[in-house]
Amino acid sequence: MKKSILLLLVIAAFISNLSAQININIIQNIKARNITSLDGKWHYIVDPFNTGEWGKFHFNKIQDVPDELLEYDFSTATALNVPGDWNSQKNELQYYEGIVWYQRDFFVHPQPGKRYFLNFGAVNYKAEVYLNGRLLGNHEGGFTPFQFEISDKILDGDNFIVIKTDNTRYAENVPAENFDWWNYGGITRDVVLAEMNETYINDYSLQLTKDMKNITGYVQLKGTQLAQEVTVQIMEANLQIKIPTNANGRATFIFPIKNVEYWTPEKPQLYTIKILSNTDTATDKMGFRTIETKGKDILLNGKSIFLRGVCLHEENPLIPGRPRSKSDLKMLLSWAKELNCNYVRLSHYPHNEYMSRLADEMGLLLWEEVPVYWSIDWENSITYENAKQQLSELIYRDKNRASVIIWSIGNETPNTDARYKFMGDLADHVRRMDTTRLVSAALLGYIDSTKTFRLNDSLGNKLDLICFNEYIGWYIENPAAIPQYSFAIDANKPVIISEFGAEALGGFYADTATRFSEEMQELFYKNQLKLIAGIPALRGTSPWILADFRSPKRLNPVYQEGWNRKGLITETGKKKKAFFVVKAFNDAMEKKYKK
Ligand code: GCU
User: Fold this and answer.
1) Measuring CA to CA, which of 66, 229, 273, 528 is 20 to 30 A from 414?
2) Which residue's alpha carbon is nearest to atom 9 within ligand 1?
3) What CA–CA distance (Å, rounded) separates 328 from 358?
4) Per residue in 35-62, pLDDT tens?
């Protein structure tokens, strides 16, 4: 067997064994399985003093006799919508941070030989989950999915779930106590009940090899019948391979491809993937592309590209709140498309899974990130394990998304030894989990006495790209001063300006020297884009930010009122003057890289 194919099989086997080492117990693409949605109205109890712990709210007690003393009652409590944050649903909860108990009933007739799983898209920040009064488990981290098998706890007929959620900020959390976005709490993404066969397809990965000639990957079964033959089909390309699983239910494979069109933002070709075993079938939609760097270039399918991007928070400004539906997410990505973006930085935490699936369909390349943001408890090993777990859950969830090209391990973190160790280890962890994508982080630089922006962050050596945030002309002087500045970035790697931006209150028109005016923001971008276009290794830009977003740190009563106004679009969806400056830049870059 040719040496290269042997090597690829060894790598595939190594990668496939890796997910076993990180405790990710999640059925891949569960939404495409036999599921029942548990979204909708959930009763809730706000519990700032954690009374429910002592009061054993998880038993969901109902008063049996009139003289029974019961100081809580979910059945008569008001309800919140799930998915959705509590802050945007109840005025009195807008600023609330703390414990909220959720409860709902569901009815099911469990079938013999079937297994049952509860899956949560995300709960911010901590979740303690009970089924019929029994603890299923806990999850920490507000932006990644988690799951519990309930086959041994589910009842025939009425069942009830109680969840203690808590978005209290602590120094040892990830993110920690200080961040520039709204700390939306609650069950912010879908909840589903899945019915699976005894032995089922738990996980799979398909990737185009770097030589763009083969597809490599693995299938992992779970259950008792682990030794089976599985078939992997790429329907529209008429490709299939049959492979035996080993004693652990794992099959790794590599097979040559023909008539497969590579995925690009311009032509986001997706294929229907079918994975069949004797006891289960899984389907998915995937695109195939390679991404790598070569010197100062970023190569997509071997061709140099420019990332015409924008940053995005997972917030629907029209609510304002966490997006509550696919159409909310589609609206945000459509705005990015109107800006002529081929790339979006999903900041600063893992966004909804639908976002990466929509980006696959719409043709947008993605930067995905974990909330290792500003100051984190760098020397705390529990904090490190938490960050690593969030990263593992994100990579596990989105590893089959063609749109995702960059894993970011953090944003604007201090250049200290403890941080270097923490984030250096995270970078190594990403590379152990995924050898097919780029690793990065949003770094900070400094301005020397000659108004030259420089970087001297040792973490850069661990990363595939040089990405940094700079606010010359907003936090440093003003837009008119921008032409006095320059950049000295001498890395032989592609450079992405991961953030640059200025604030404007939508509809406030004045001269270019007036803060928060649309004219000042417009001048900021005119001067910034002229300046950064001069950086030889510039291969991407993501202005901060697509739309105004809620932040408890933005307190100017006239211009901000709890909003960060750096959006190119207002909170009502209106494009600011600067939007068109950035669009013109993207149009020019599209033309330049089309050649
Ligand atoms: C920082 C940070 C963002 C923040 C932005 C701002 O760079 O990464 O989260 O919102 O600057 O100041 O507006």
Assistant:
1) 528
2) 180
3) 11
4) 999 999 999 999 999 999 999 999 999 9
